[in-house]
Amino acid sequence: MSQPNPRLEIRNLRRAFNGRAVVDDVSLKIMPGQVTCLLGPSGCGKSTTLRMIAGVEMQDSGEIWVDGNLICDTVFRVPPERREIGLMFQDFALFPHLSVADNVSFGLKKGTRAEKRARVEELLQRVDLLRFIDGYPHQLSGGEQQRVALARALAPRPRIMLMDEPFSGLDNRLRDGIRDETLTILKEQDTAVLLVTHEPEEAMRMADEIALMRDGKIVQQGAPYNVYTRPVDRAAVAFFSDANVLRAEVSGALAHTPFGRFLAPGVPDGTAVNIVFRPQHVRIDFDRGGQGPKPTASDGTAARAIVQRARFMGNESLVEFVMDYDGSVLRATVPNVFLPQPGTVMWLTIRRDRCFVFAA
Predict the structure, then answer these.
(1) Helices 113-126/142-154 angle, 10° precision
(2) Which of 35, 103, 168, 291 gives 193 a disulfide partner, CB atoms 3.0 to 4.6 angstroms apart?
(3) Can you give the pLDDT at residue 321?
(4) Domains in the chain, ordered, with CATH?
């Protein structure tokens, strides 16, 4: 049985400006009903990729396919208005002189007036704005305007939805609700979604698959869990959260540190490595109180540290330690309220199964 075609496939897209590759050999496949997040820092090429798919920017090389049909290469090009691709941006740009109903129906090219009105009412009902159907954008809040923009983008039933940080202008409480409702509607319609964001939390919350982008290239791609727990390098760890780094040298496939030895299979002796771990995987031994020699714990050797600063962050506390062995700073997060005084001596261990070893 043959595999179904991806709803959207881009192959080896490249775009350069002034000789610099902004998008460099980017390939992606997105199936119907799938949400893929293109995640990366500002300036890494995310929005340019979206603009090429939408047809408002031409690639220098590469191909764009929809449902198994070529829609654009460097010779053949389907115009943007015929690609059946919806667009949502941070600047949702409603037409101020048009009513809410007319804004939503703007992209509806087919159907009778009654059919268009029925589609508008259906969508405004879904986003809980039917009462504003004959109102105007200036009468709506920012969140309400965003929901109208969503309804407008969905009205033509696009096969593909491209979203360029459409929720970043909303406050956090409003953002979560609109984001979740948007996702529900798009999945119901079997729309393939490519969402651009620089916020890891948003990508983790919305995506079926994350494509991590850096310097114009996709450096890692996979399910959110896999991208988070199996990062390809130190920068990938740090992009999702704060990261602590231990520097060590490998001998006999082991990296030797004050916290004990870490497995480094396949790494040649003498290689400098970084052992990277997140603050939530630092364990504090509350029973020792700084007394006695460095004992061995189940997570390796405990290292002596002195509290430098502690802050309450809402649902956890962030504690910064100065390590005895070299004066470096190490951060740990602790659930709930934990605010030890600066100067307090503690012993720390590391979750060895949550550490990543990368060549320095």
Answers:
(1) 130
(2) 35
(3) 97
(4) 8-238 (3.40.50.300), 242-359 (2.40.50.140)
